[in-house]
Amino acid sequence: MATRVDPARVAALKEREDAAFVAARPRSAALWAAGRGVMPNGVPMSWLRTSYDHPPLFIESAAGSRLRDVDGHEYADFNIADMSMFTGYGPAPVVEAVSRQVALGSQYLLPTDDSIWVAGELARRYGLPLWQFTLAATSANTEVIRIARSATGREKVLFFDGKYHGHFDDVLVQLEDGRLVPEEDGLPRDVTARTVIVPFNDLDALERALASHEVALVITEPALTNNVGLLMPDDRFHAGLREVTRRTGTLLAYDETHTQVVGPGGLTSRWGLDPDLVTVGKSIAAGIPLGAYGMTPDVAAVLERPAGRDDDKPQVAVGGTLFGNPLSMAAARAAMGEVLTDEAYAHTRRLGTRLADGLEEVVAAAGLAWTTHRFWPRSGLSFSPALPRTATEAMATLDVPLRRLVRVYLANRGVWDAIVGAGPTCSVAATDEDVDRYLAAFGDLVGELV
Ligand code: PMP
């Protein structure tokens, strides 16, 4: 069985599909031209341009599981804004709660009772008793690192190769031929000084890295879901990680920003994990900006120093005027209370399984040795006979031209596919018809490829 398809065939189809994409979207093209006069890359965040190689879509509206662009094309959305719209677009309880709260005042810099409900619900879901809020997962991770440094008196942070935890200095570092280098431009020259990276699923490397007791915090997704597609942990990985972090006095944080879609409490709850901290963001408030981090009472002690304290320890550097604002809290209460229910997770898991079954059938019928992802609502493919275990293995199987072809081919057939880190994922609003549409378009593509 083959793992690679003919690159010349991929290139020819890509050229045809790119031309069709552009021809059918004159309004998006005109808006992009106007955007380029006032925004770098013509879009509100220049990096948005780097997620795709086809021209950007401009969006008119969205409802449920469907996006509608300014040229009138409707898409079944399996990217769901890099999983931040897992609730689907415009769920009625969130629309109602947010409309009510914005009229009453979107920010007071004083708490509302929604914050108590939301913190309590996150505690129930993730099993950590105390919570704080930010505006995004990135800022939750930034705060958690500072808290860990304060709690341990150590400076370094350990990540696993292939990670993504947001855009902040400590994490924008990668392994290149065994050496740590800045991932992008514009970072301080010594950005690698406080970061340690070891391969995922490598407990021996982890043991060696923590042995000198210099690492304040290990932060990881329970399964890596970003630059590497999907890396699942070996059976003993999380138990080993917890044991060695405890033995070396290192704090352990799970970043559930993506993995929260597997059920209430994310993989922490599904797999019975026992971290010191958990971070989340994206879909907890149905796409209204909110990040959160939960912690044990031991960790929280560094935040609970009173204002008129009598010790000489400085306050931990956490903060942000709009963090944990009443509008975000109202959205999170409605989202978790009325949309992200047990039934909703069961529905998305059923659809995710259907999508995985369908992909597996198409791939097997074409005689391709590709592996289907099975991750609750999320599916996808590794272009390899087995799921990779490390970032190095994952990168070796990442066929970028093929990925790009899949995306534009599906877009031309009313399917908005996921970027590499997001699935395809079925939202709470997704339907069997959406899954059918995905599988039909993907089946047509594979039919043309082999
Ligand atoms: N952590 C993880 C695991 C993520 O996948 C992401 C975004 N892809 C982030 C953090 C950062 O989220 P945000 O950009 O919303 O701050």
CATH superfamily of the largest domain: Type I PLP-dependent aspartate aminotransferase-like (Major domain)
Distinct ligand kinds: 4'-deoxy-4'-aminopyridoxal-5'-phosphate
Structural class: alpha/beta
- Unreliable spans: none
Strand fraction = 5-15%
Largest sheet: 7 strands, mixed
**End-to-end distance:** 12 Å
- Kindly identify the CATH topology of the largest domain: Aspartate Aminotransferase, domain 2
Q: Gyration radius, to the nearest Å?
A: 22 Å
Whole-number mean pLDDT: 96
Protein name: Aminotransferase class III-fold pyridoxal phosphate-dependent enzyme
Cofactor: pyridoxal 5'-phosphate
GO molecular function: pyridoxal phosphate binding; transaminase activity
Pfam family, one: Aminotran_3
Keywords:
binds 4'-deoxy-4'-aminopyridoxal-5'-phosphate, Aspartate Aminotransferase, domain 2, 2 domains, 39% helix, 14 helices, globular, 7-stranded mixed beta sheet, Aspartate Aminotransferase, domain 1, 4-stranded mixed beta sheet, 450 residues, alpha/beta
Question: What topology emerges from the helices and strands here?
Answer:
Layout: H1 7-23, H2 26-36, E1 59-63, E2 66-69, E3 74-77, H3 92-104, H4 113-126, E4 130-134, H5 137-152, E5 156-160, E6 173-176, E7 179-182, E8 195-198, H6 203-210, E9 215-220, H7 237-247, E10 251-255, H8 266-270, E11 277-280, E12 291-295, H9 297-300, H10 326-339, H11 342-365, E13 371-372, E14 381-382, H12 391-397, H13 400-411, E15 415-416, H14 432-449
Parallel strand pairs: 3-15, 5-8, 5-9, 9-10, 10-11
Antiparallel strand pairs: 1-2, 2-3, 4-12, 6-7, 11-12, 13-14
The protein binds 4'-deoxy-4'-aminopyridoxal-5'-phosphate (PMP).
